[in-house]
Amino acid sequence: MNTCDNVSLYLYNEMTEAEKTEFQKHLQRCAQCSEAVKIFNAATNAKELKSAPLQVINAIFEKTTRKRHIFAFTKTMKLTFAAACLLIGVGYFTFNKPVPNAGFLFYDSSAESFEEIASISSELDEYESIFFA
Hints:
This protein is an all-alpha fold. The chain is built from 6 helices and no strands. Helix 2 crosses helix 3. The model has no long low-confidence stretch (mean pLDDT 76).
């Protein structure tokens, strides 16, 4: 077996003391294996880095997370809502005018209709005098 094939055994400390001594001599002669050991040690040491302080982590979290509120509208949404309300209001007041001669708004101008209105008016006067006297 080639000595270079034992790099993983050396890195994970699975060699006997005699094998370690032999492999360390090999590392002095083999640039490829010594480079592999350097890279592995650098990667292993990088995993042990300390974390940032909790205040820094919380500050970054506050700045990077999006908080959505129920009534959080963008400027475009607000303008669209205002335009829709305006359009509905204009439409309501434009098309909600009484139509002349429409069924319940049409009054007969005959003498009988005037007599009927006069009798209703006199009945209302009687009720007013009873209830509000």
